[in-house]
Amino acid sequence: MVIELQRLYRDGWTDGMIFIQGILLCRSIELKWANNERNVSCVPEGVYQVVIIQHPKFSECLQINGVKGRSGILVHVANDAQKELRGCIAPVFSLTGNGKGQHSRLALSYVIENLRISGEKEHYLKISSGNTHPRLS
């Protein structure tokens, strides 16, 4: 199963839309693009394997594997990118502006449930955008 994250880069944060099989499930919030620096940048565009994990702090969430130069990246619950994210992705049901959203716990549960009911064993996250940023080579 492929989760698609289509981004829009803002000056201080990144908004997104999360799709599965072409259906919009929810929105997303992230930190701004900062050259893939640990703890301060959103994840580079690309395709990454994701797995459902039980995290000690964030409970059930998705772990993103294979990000060059980074580790420990999750898709987890957060409603304010600046206060709650350190390079991870947070699904939300609605955007409230400036890297903030609402109902993140419900949005994450919805994404995970869609992965489970797909019956597929491997899941991937495809991150892309309509506007450009410096890509890593």
Question: Can you put this structure into words, describing what you see?
Answer:
The chain is mainly beta and 137 residues long. It has one domain (2-129): L,D-transpeptidase catalytic domain-like (Beta Barrel). It is 14% helix and 45% strand. It is built from two helices and ten strands, in the order E-E-E-E-E-E-H-E-E-E-H-E. It has helices spanning 81-84, 104-118, and strands spanning 2-9, 13-20, 23-31, 46-55, 59-65, 73-75, 90-92, 94-97, 100-102, 123-129. It has an eight-stranded mixed β-sheet with strand order 6-5-4-10-1-2-3-7, covered by helices on one side. The chain has a two-stranded antiparallel sheet with strand order 8-9. Strand 5 (59-65) and strand 6 form a beta hairpin. It is globular, with a radius of gyration of 13 Å. It starts with a strand and ends in an 8-residue tail after the last strand.
Topology:
Elements: E1 2-9, E2 13-20, E3 23-31, E4 46-55, E5 59-65, E6 73-75, H1 81-84, E7 90-92, E8 94-97, E9 100-102, H2 104-118, E10 123-129
Parallel strand pairs: 1-10
Antiparallel strand pairs: 1-2, 2-3, 3-7, 4-5, 4-10, 5-6, 8-9
Q: How would you sum up this structure in a few lines?
A:
The protein is mainly beta and 137 residues long. Helices cover 14% and strands 45% of the residues.
Name its key features.
137 residues, mainly beta, 2 helices, 8-stranded mixed beta sheet, L,D-transpeptidase catalytic domain-like, globular, 14% helix
